[in-house]
Design brief:
Layout (H helix, E strand, L loop, with lengths): L1 E2 L6 E2 L14 E2 L18 H10 L9 H4 L4 E6 L9 E3 L6 H10 L6 E18 L14 E4 L8 E16 L20 H5 L1
């Protein structure tokens, strides 16, 4: 990690054109090995997370959730003792209803969960590892630091997740089967459970 040539942030010594997004945020480098290995639920691949969040793809099967209902998407988040609130910040991508049931069954992170239909999931910022401006060392901490787009601190961050602000939230519950919105088309078949768990 080095000081960026502009002096306003950090960069890689061998930085290339794909290391930053359109907002100038530096992103972590991760190998791509699609279809190999097994799921590491707490450590979602940065590129996959960015892709699913920016295109509103189901984080389980990869289907376009906007085809199910272009007006709102289903979000399932870890339970923190309250429903999903207006303006809630999250790094989670949406899920299609059949995949929501698979996700809460197989993802340890979602054993306790909350869910909501969201009308306006808006890009808010990024989350990642913040670096000290003087020492260029990671700032100590257990969680990823969230930084809004437009905040100068984003130049001192190596992003690992895109962050959404959830607006127009309507809570739903597992016993309802994550009700499909009225008039929605039938959901696509989710991936077989073996494909999700192996």
């Amino acid at each position: 990690m080095v000081r960026h040539r502009t002096g306003r942030g950090i960069g890689f010594t061998d930085e290339g054109p794909y290391d930053r997004d359109a907002d100038g945020v530096l992103w972590i480098r991760q190998a791509i090995a699609r279809g190999s290995g097994r799921p590491l639920f707490p450590t979602v691949h940065a590129l996959r997370q960015r892709r699913t969040v920016s295109r509103m793809l189901c984080q389980v099967c990869g289907a376009d959730t906007l085809k199910h209902d272009p007006e709102r998407q289903l979000f399932v988040l870890k339970d923190v003792g309250r429903p999903i609130e207006e303006g809630e910040l999250t790094t989670a991508a949406p899920v299609c209803p059949p995949c929501a049931l698979i996700a809460v069954e197989h993802c340890p992170h979602l054993r306790g969960h909350v869910a909501a239909w969201v009308e306006r999931p808006l890009p808010w910022g990024v989350a990642g590892i913040l670096y000290d401006r003087d020492t260029l060392s990671p700032v100590p901490g257990d969680d990823l630091t969230k930084v809004a787009y437009g905040d100068p601190a984003r130049h001192w961050l190596v992003a690992t997740r895109q962050v959404l602000s959830l607006n127009g939230c309507t809570a739903v519950f597992k016993h309802t089967g994550y009700l499909l919105p009225a008039g929605a088309i039938e959901p696509q078949q989710p991936l077989p459970r073996e494909a999700v768990t192996t």
